[in-house]
């Protein structure tokens, strides 16, 4: 029988060993014991803590996952705001930045010392330690207020639950990036495919999705990692006088320091260092999307200060869009809902710009001609940020099969044609082309249109070929007994579908218009139509001139609207859908007016956002977008090189946010 005293002694010993081994494994990548020894000790500690619950401490390795899932996230106010970084998009931008720093400091640039680290593409995370124990983990949120994700950060093995080293601070906030290593990302997605659950588009989304789990067991399985890049609010510890010294202090406390951190002086080594990390980018086990260069000395950082939401002493040199070679296996032709026959390149899967790419749309035959590609070539695939991947060039293959535009529609066999001034090939099949009908049906039920859950393209294609759904109104006349008897379906899934269809009947005017598949009328233009015309009847009766008077409605788009509602067949279908139960509350009520009464000012350059689209987006939410800053301005979105408007906003104490903040605030919408 183990006495309480013996148990306490043994538990301490086990905890110390486990902490040391975990550090060797997850931080140093250099384990000194085999996994089996770690596992045995872990099990022994678990059983000791079960027998003597008093021995369980919050920093015990057994506590990385514990407790019940949370109900929701609590907000955390950051004592020191979490800032973003300004971007440099070219070598020149970067050199200018460094020279500007030196000039502001009044010293020659060759005397200024920098530290540079890879910019990890993950989730900015704040960790708070009190008396050496991790007490809180939080997301960045909008920089001022984040979410408490302590339960999830505890599961990250490279986050120390207890600081190590000789001097344990009374208080310390450590900031860094939590991310999903690429091999883990691939494993998580493989599993997701097997289990038919959500597949993540890139490691950053996977990391964010894991951190937003209420149940820490899920995050624990996702194998996230953490690398520290800064420390704040030190009490009882000396962080040194420079950023590079702080990184070493953090390393001695048990954090992983980025092995690709470099320190240099002046501009001489700059290009070489940048080229080196860019070259290494593809062989790193994690996604990086840039290089962060920081003035090393804190005294100089302080002197340089901040502008808007970013420090003047640091910059993110964004990497150019990533490009990778792969083989062009085939070119297939897909028929869209408007009859456009689009060539799609089928590729040997390649991981580029953070996602796996196996097919790339080529838009039209001109594109194939321009690229001069043939099946069997090695093609270069480029993908930047969240942009659709594209083919940028090729090396001729040994055996090349040229691509020929199909004379007939690959789906229905009707002739294809090309309008004289159009690059697009079209199927003449119209309402008799199965592919066009299925695509129209699929568009109608899509997430941003009528949003019918569980009615994917595959099921729609089956319903269509089985003769159960031939037109949009047929969706509301479905015989669910027949659905239940289809292969792969059952009573339960049929009932679920019935419910989803019922629920989807309540919609908004904008969504309904978008769902009808009028050419060029997507989500944004439908919102404009709904917002300005307010009712279906007004839209139906509007003249071409009235439609053209709407914001962003040109003659072609307007003509498509006019023609659609001028067609008897189209109007009959619309009436039928309404008669079958599709409805929406009055437009005034259904609009998202969340920014009503606010005045926004957009200034500077936005490298990753389309300015006029952003303006329309904000206006659709009821905001006024003004060209000048006054005391009535609610918020200023300051982009790169923002000038006098930004200065004025700062003088007037008006809230200033950056491009990244806008994207964070309207995540999923913008
Ligand atoms: S320093 C005040 N260093 O980039 C400076 N940020 O827009 C604070 N990031 O979301 C940031 N790697 O999470 C810094 N080595 C690094 C970084 C890094 C990634 C992220 C950070 C933030 C964004 C800045």
> What's the tally of helices?
25
- Which architecture of the largest domain would the CATH scheme give at its second level? 2-Layer Sandwich
What is the CATH C-level name of the largest domain? Answer: Alpha Beta
* Attached small molecules: 2-(butylsulfanyl)adenosine
Largest beta-sheet characterization: 7 strands, antiparallel
> What is the helix fraction of residues, given as a range?
25-40%
Structural class: alpha+beta
Features:
seven-stranded antiparallel β-sheet, single chain, D-amino Acid Aminotransferase, Chain A, domain 1, 6 domains, globular, alpha+beta, 670 residues, 25 helices, OB fold (Dihydrolipoamide Acetyltransferase, E2P), Helix Hairpins
What would a concise description of this structure say?
The protein is α+β, with helices and mostly antiparallel strands and 670 residues long.
């Amino acid at each position: 029988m183990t006495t309480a005293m013996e148990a306490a002694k043994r538990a301490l010993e086990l905890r110390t060993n486990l902490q040391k081994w975990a550090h060797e494994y997850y931080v140093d990548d250099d384990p000194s014991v085999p996994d089996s020894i770690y596992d045995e000790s872990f099990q022994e500690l678990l059983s000791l803590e079960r027998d003597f619950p008093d021995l369980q401490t919050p920093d015990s390795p057994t506590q990385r996952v514990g407790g019940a899932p949370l109900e929701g996230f609590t907000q955390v106010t950051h004592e020191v705001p979490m800032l973003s970084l300004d971007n440099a998009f070219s070598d020149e931008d970067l050199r200018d930045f460094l020279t500007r720093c030196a000039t502001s400091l009044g010293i020659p640039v060759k005397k200024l010392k920098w530290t540079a680290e890879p910019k990890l593409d993950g989730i900015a995370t704040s960790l708070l330690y009190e008396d050496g124990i991790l007490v809180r983990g939080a997301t960045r949120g909008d920089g001022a207020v984040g979410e408490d994700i302590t339960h999830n950060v505890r599961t990250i093995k490279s986050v120390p639950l207890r600081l190590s080293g000789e001097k344990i601070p009374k208080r310390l906030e450590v900031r860094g990036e939590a991310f999903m290593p690429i091999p883990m990302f691939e494993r998580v997605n493989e599993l997701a495919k097997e289990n038919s659950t959500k597949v993540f588009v890139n490691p950053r989304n996977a990391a964010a999705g894991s951190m937003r789990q209420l149940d820490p067991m899920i995050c624990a399985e996702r194998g996230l990692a953490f690398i520290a890049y800064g420390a704040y609010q030190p009490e009882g510890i000396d962080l040194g006088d420079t950023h590079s010294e702080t990184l070493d202090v953090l390393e001695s406390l048990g954090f992983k320091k980025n092995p690709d951190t470099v320190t240099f002086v002046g501009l001489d080594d700059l290009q070489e260092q940048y080229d080196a990390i860019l070259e290494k980018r593809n062989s790193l086990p994690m996604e990086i999307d840039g290089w962060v260069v920081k003035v090393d000395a804190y005294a100089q950082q302080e002197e340089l200060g901040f502008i808007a939401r970013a420090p003047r002493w640091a910059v993110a040199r964004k990497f150019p869009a990533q490009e990778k070679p792969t083989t062009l296996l085939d070119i297939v032709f897909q028929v869209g809902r408007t009859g456009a026959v689009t060539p799609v390149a089928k590729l040997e899967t390649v991981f580029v710009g953070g996602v796996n790419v196996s097919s790339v749309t080529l838009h039209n035959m001109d594109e194939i001609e321009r690229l001069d590609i043939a099946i069997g070539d090695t093609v270069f695939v480029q993908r930047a940020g969240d942009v659709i991947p594209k083919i940028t060039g090729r090396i001729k293959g040994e055996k090349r099969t040229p691509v020929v535009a199909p004379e007939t529609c690959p789906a229905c066999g009707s002739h294809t044609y090309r309008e004289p001034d159009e690059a697009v090939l079209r199927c003449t099949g119209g309402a008799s082309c199965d592919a066009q009908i299925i695509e129209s049906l699929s568009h109608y039920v899509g997430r941003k249109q009528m949003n019918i859950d569980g009615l994917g393209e595959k099921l729609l294609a089956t319903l269509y070929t089985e003769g159960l759904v031939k037109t949009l109104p047929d969706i509301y006349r479905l015989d669910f007994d027949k659905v239940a008897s289809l292969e792969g379906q059952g009573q339960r899934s049929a009932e679920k579908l019935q419910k989803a269809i019922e629920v989807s009947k309540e919609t908004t005017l904008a969504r309904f218009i978008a769902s009808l598949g009028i050419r060029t009328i997507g989500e944004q233009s439908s919102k404009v139509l709904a917002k300005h015309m307010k009712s279906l009847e007004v839209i139906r009766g509007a003249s071409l001139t009235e439609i053209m008077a709407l914001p962003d409605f040109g003659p072609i788009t307007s003509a498509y609207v006019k023609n659609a509602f001028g067609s008897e067949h189209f109007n009959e279908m619309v009436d039928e859908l309404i008669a079958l139960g599709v409805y929406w509350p009055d437009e005034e009520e259904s609009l998202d007016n969340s920014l009503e009464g606010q005045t926004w000012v957009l200034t500077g350059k936005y490298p990753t956002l389309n300015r006029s689209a952003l303006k329309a987006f904000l206006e659709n939410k009821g905001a006024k977008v003004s060209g000048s800053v006054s005391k009535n301005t609610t918020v200023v979105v300051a982009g790169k090189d923002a000038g006098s408007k930004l200065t004025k906003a700062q003088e007037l104490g008006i809230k200033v946010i950056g491009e990244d903040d806008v994207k964070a605030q309207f995540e999923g919408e913008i």
